[in-house]
Specification:
By secondary structure, the protein is mainly beta. About 10% of the residues lie in helices and about 25% in strands. A hairpin with an 8-residue loop joins strand 1 and strand 2. The chain is elongated, with a radius of gyration of 17 Å. The chain starts with a strand and ends in a 19-residue tail after the last strand.
Length: about 60
C-alpha cells in the first residue's frame, strides 16, 4: 500500500496532502482539491511500504563500507 504525496503549487498556498492508496497507479490518477484554496493538487510522489527487518537476521546483515 503506497503512500502518495500531493502538492498544491498555488502562489501563497503550497499545501501538502498525504494519502495511503491501494496502488501507486490509483494514487497517481486520484484527483484531490486543495483543502486550503480549492485548486486541484498534483501527485508529487508515490512510495511503498517496506517490510520491517527481522532482528534475528541482524547477524546476517553486513554493514557496507
Amino acid at each position: 500500500m503506497p503512500l502518495c504525496v500531493y502538492l498544491c503549487y498555488s502562489p501563497g498556498c503550497q499545501t501538502k496532502l498525504e494519502r495511503w492508496m491501494p496502488t501507486a497507479d490509483e494514487g497517481r490518477q486520484a484527483k484531490f482539491e486543495c483543502p486550503r484554496c480549492g485548486v486541484p493538487m498534483t501527485c508529487a510522489w508515490t512510495g511503498s511500504q517496506m517490510a520491517t527487518p527481522n532482528m534475528k537476521d541482524a547477524a546476517a546483515i553486513k554493514p557496507s563500507r
